[in-house]
């Protein structure tokens, strides 16, 4: 594992009207990670130009063997809309000198069941506009994705409409558990590596 910092990005849309949407589960996971570190997010305007494009928190995430604090991690939530997430991600990666292999994107995923968490490096974006813009801005697909399952839209509902709706009352019963599990997955990636995290979260008990 490299000694350099990690960049962990939670995807979502800005504004209170989107806060509870399925599309914003990445923001929810980042809030949980910041809470675990007793950290708060601050504007990155000074880092990324005149206008803030993200809010960030600089933390030590997780605990290594022997009780040593985990690696340095920049937690980031872009304040742009989902389809223009790539610019802030690439700017933060350049500023903190984080290579793509230590960039972790936390995002909603339609192609896995609700409340499942899956991880991968590279691959396609599956129609996810935030990932597509990130790939374009970074110039590579070779970054880690923590995929948070939000399920498939019912019937003939359009996928874009589905992800821009809040979780249902039934789903909200398990939402805190899902956010906690996704945060655990991020911690395991940065402390133990992607393969260890995949082994834990891809293996059914």
Automatic annotation (TrEMBL):
Gene from which the chain derives: pth
Marked site: Discriminates between blocked and unblocked aminoacyl-tRNA: 13
The reaction(s) this protein catalyses: an N-acyl-L-alpha-aminoacyl-tRNA + H2O = an N-acyl-L-amino acid + a tRNA + H(+)
Subcellular location as annotated: Cytoplasm
Function: Catalyzes the release of premature peptidyl moieties from peptidyl-tRNA molecules trapped in stalled 50S ribosomal subunits, and thus maintains levels of free tRNAs and 50S ribosomes. Hydrolyzes ribosome-free peptidyl-tRNAs (with 1 or more amino acids incorporated), which drop off the ribosome during protein synthesis, or as a result of ribosome stalling.
Protein name (Swiss-Prot/TrEMBL): Peptidyl-tRNA hydrolase
Subunit details: Monomer.
Species, as recorded: Cellulomonas rhizosphaerae
Binding site for tRNA: 18, 81, 83, 129
A GO CC term assigned to this protein in UniProt: cytoplasm
HAMAP family to which the protein is assigned, alphabetical: Pept_tRNA_hydro_bact
Annotated family: Belongs to the PTH family.
Annotated Gene3D superfamilies: Peptidyl-tRNA hydrolase
Site positions per UniProt: Stabilizes the basic form of H active site to accept a proton: 108
BP-aspect Gene Ontology terms: protein quality control for misfolded or incompletely synthesized proteins; rescue of stalled ribosome
MF annotations from Gene Ontology: peptidyl-tRNA hydrolase activity; tRNA binding
Alphabetical UniProt keywords: Cytoplasm, Hydrolase, RNA-binding, tRNA-binding
This enzyme's EC code(s): 3.1.1.29
Active-site residues, as the UniProt record annotates them: 23 (proton acceptor)
